[in-house]
UniProtKB/TrEMBL annotation, chains A, B:
<keyword id="KW-0963">Cytoplasm</keyword>
<keyword id="KW-0808">Transferase</keyword>
<dbReference type="InterPro" id="IPR006700">
    <property type="entry name" value="RsmE"/>
</dbReference>
<keyword id="KW-0489">Methyltransferase</keyword>
<comment type="function">
    <text>Specifically methylates the N3 position of the uracil ring of uridine 1498 (m3U1498) in 16S rRNA. Acts on the fully assembled 30S ribosomal subunit.</text>
</comment>
<dbReference type="Pfam" id="PF20260">
    <property type="entry name" value="PUA_4"/>
</dbReference>
<dbReference type="InterPro" id="IPR029028">
    <property type="entry name" value="Alpha/beta_knot_MTases"/>
</dbReference>
<feature type="domain" description="Ribosomal RNA small subunit methyltransferase E methyltransferase">
    <location>
        <begin position="77"/>
        <end position="227"/>
    </location>
</feature>
<feature type="domain" description="Ribosomal RNA small subunit methyltransferase E PUA-like">
    <location>
        <begin position="18"/>
        <end position="63"/>
    </location>
</feature>
<dbReference type="InterPro" id="IPR015947">
    <property type="entry name" value="PUA-like_sf"/>
</dbReference>
<dbReference type="GO" id="GO:0070042">
    <property type="term" value="F:rRNA (uridine-N3-)-methyltransferase activity"/>
</dbReference>
<dbReference type="GO" id="GO:0070475">
    <property type="term" value="P:rRNA base methylation"/>
</dbReference>
<dbReference type="InterPro" id="IPR029026">
    <property type="entry name" value="tRNA_m1G_MTases_N"/>
</dbReference>
<protein>
    <recommendedName>
        <fullName>Ribosomal RNA small subunit methyltransferase E</fullName>
        <ecNumber>2.1.1.193</ecNumber>
    </recommendedName>
</protein>
<keyword id="KW-0698">rRNA processing</keyword>
<dbReference type="InterPro" id="IPR046887">
    <property type="entry name" value="RsmE_PUA-like"/>
</dbReference>
<dbReference type="Pfam" id="PF04452">
    <property type="entry name" value="Methyltrans_RNA"/>
</dbReference>
Length: 236, 236
């Protein structure tokens, strides 16, 4: 299935013009011709079944034949706030896998012990978009610009709030604490873990400490484990 | 914690000589000196608490002070047989993450639709060893040389046998089928999925078809999803 990500399309149109970049890809790389079927996703749940009306390398015209809204809509809302890793490839790997498995929103948080103090969201978003197309999702996860831990904690969130940390202390298991088909925000710390002050601040702000198993996981593995557990618990 | 992987050590020794490579790493890179504490794992469950008796760059001598056997022994046996990916980095990511999360044995299977017909096990094993040291495991997962799908199916396995495929047909969920604290073998196919003949052959050989959720997962993501599910189901 040749999937195109076209966030500016809407369900009312009967015709659509591919961007110059997408047109070039369609005609020169995929070698699509008039009459060929293509599928578009708008990132907001809409899947559009279309066909090529005019295969032009700079301005391909598509005829929209059918629209499905709410395609494979997820039954819960998962927001993961994770410290970007020193080796940014690890964060890229996490974003690709989380998109395949299922995630709604990702925030990048710069923590006290973070070795990486910034991250280029534009490039990371491209990784997500590729994964959306490859795994045939009609919803495009949101990726937020990096902010500091304390700035992030100021943002309101309706739903259950969890923090995964490696320090001592009482921790819940998601299997026992997660309310199914709910909204969740999970904090994942940097390579050196959250600082005691950050753990305190989160607990004061209504976050519950959780365990992600007995193994010592890297940041990106922990983030994906959290993603996996939430999706799995909402499946059974 | 400075962890060394020393598969040739055994629990009866009171002294141990690091290899030339490990000695050089200990003295020149880690800059360890006499009296420094180090930890060794033998890959078979043994964790050795030692200290440097003679910090020599080619032949460091360690004094073994304590031994723990069966360190964090797993409560189930998981063998994943997966088709190595065209881009071998993806298989490397899987091996690293599976080692962190928990796996006992990995086999590489060349399937009908595999784009990659061979894989260098020596290099892949180094990835596993690094992950063993980084995630502080005393057990080193076994990695087997690549064989064809039909050759692999001839190998006996005591335990539950599962196959994850994307074709139509009845599929079980591990949540309902897995016997806890058991032995499991799970087959994960190449990018183009298993062929109908391969699926048939597996079902004839006692494998049960399973689903890994509704999402369309890449080979390495599916392999890791299987790994997550088995470990998670044996935790709760």
């Amino acid at each position: 299935m040749q999937l195109f990500y076209t966030p500016d399309i809407n369900p009312t149109v009967s015709q659509y013009f591919l961007s110059e970049e997408e047109s070039k890809h369609a005609v020169r790389v995929l070698r699509l011709v008039n009459g060929d079927a293509v599928t578009l996703v708008d990132g907001k749940g809409g899947m559009y079944h279309a066909e090529i009306k005019d295969a032009h390398p700079k301005r391909t015209i598509l005829q929209i034949n059918a629209v499905v809204t709410g395609f494979n809509k997820r039954n819960h809302y998962l927001h993961i706030a994770v410290a970007p890793t020193k080796n940014i490839e690890r964060t890229e790997w996490f974003l690709e896998k989380a998109t395949e498995i299922g995630v709604d929103e990702v925030s990048l948080i710069i923590c006290q012990r973070s070795e990486r103090k910034e991250a280029k969201v534009e490039r990371l978003n491209k990784i997500i978009t590729s994964a959306v197309k490859q795994s045939i999702k009609a919803y495009h996860p949101i990726l937020n610009e990096a902010v500091t831990f304390s700035q992030f904690l100021k943002q309101p969130f309706e739903g259950q709030k969890f923090m995964a940390h490696c320090a001592d202390g009482e921790k819940l298991a998601l299997a026992q604490s997660l309310d199914k088909q709910g909204r969740y925000l999970i904090l994942i710390g940097p390579e050196g873990d959250f600082s005691p002050a950050e753990i305190d601040m989160a607990l004061q702000n209504g976050f519950k400490a959780i365990t992600l198993g007995e193994s010592r996981l890297r940041t990106e593995t922990a983030a994906l484990e959290a993603c996996f557990e939430v999706n799995f618990l909402n499946r059974i």
